Amino acid sequence: MPESQYRARDVSAKTQEVIAYDHDPSLPGKPLHILIPGGLVALAVLGVIIFVAYRTWFQGELDQGTGLLLIGLLAPFYVGGVFLFSYGYELYNIPRALRLTAIIVFLTVASVVIVAVLFFLFGSGRGLPESDSKKKSSGKAKVEPRNAPSSSGGSGLPNMGPLVILGGPGRTHTREVTREVVKEVPVAPRSIDCPYCGRSYVPAEQDYACPACGAATPPELIEQSEAPKDRSENK
User: Fold this and answer.
1) Is the distance from CB of 155 to CB of 182 less than 8 angstroms?
2) Total of domains in the chain
3) For residues 4 and 97, what is the distance between their CA atoms, to the nearest angstrom?
């Protein structure tokens, strides 16, 4: 059986040699009859292995033990397909076919691992490092002060200062906290009528004694004079 004159990396010349060997009726064997089916089997099985790995470690639809078991069952079929391809490609030279099979399998495993790691990193958003400006901006909280609303009459809404709430990395919310303060406006004392002589006077201005008869102002009339207007009217 003639030996191939080209190395495996000389793809164009090697392929032409295999085709010429297959079409030569004087040479034994048909290398294309095992090269093509072996290559198709290897590609199909490799696609299934990648699909199982994707559903196991990326989508999480399959248990890790189940995924490893399926990949272990499919791996011999992939290696067998690669060997059939290499056996026909090397024109039935078993040592060279085994060496080519080992190289293809090793390169395939290395490529799948590299692609899987990169896909996982970029898919999870942790593949690209953050720049220094983004890190600095994410660590500082921006506070925007507001002016307190004006108050009138007996109530107002004073500014209690901004409250900074950190909602996670890179997220900052500013909320204004206010408190309502009610102020009571004092009411001026009102005049009452003396129960003894009927004189009208303001108890607080006359030392709580009637200026006409000198009688002391009763406590209930003092309370009525100094009570708020609505309270005295209710009585």
Assistant:
1) yes
2) 3
3) 11
Does 31 fall in a domain? yes
| 19-23, 52-56, 141-145, 177-181: the lowest-pLDDT one | 141-145
pLDDT digits (tens, 9 = 90+) for 152-166: 444 444 545 555 555
221 residue type, one letter: L
Using CA atoms, how far apart are residues 69 and 56, in angstroms rounded to an integer? 11
Residue 58: partners with Cβ closer than 8 Å, 6 or more residues away: 119, 120, 123
Residue for token pair 């490529």: 111
- What are 183's two structure tokens? 């102020």
Range of the domain at 97: 11-123
Q: ∠33-37-40 over CA atoms, to 5°?
A: 150
pTM for this entry: 0.51
Does any domain span residue 221?
Answer: yes
Residues 203 and 174 in one domain: no
Rg, the chain, Cα only? 48
CA distance readout (Å), 181 to 17, 184, 229 = 97, 10, 22
* E strands in 20-169: 155-156, 159-168
Token pair 């925007």 is at which residue? Answer: 144
- CA distances 26 to 20, 22, 31, 206, 212, Å, are 11, 10, 14, 144, 153
- Give me the torsion for CA of 30, 31, 34, 36, rounded to 10°: -110
Domain match, 79 and 145 both: no
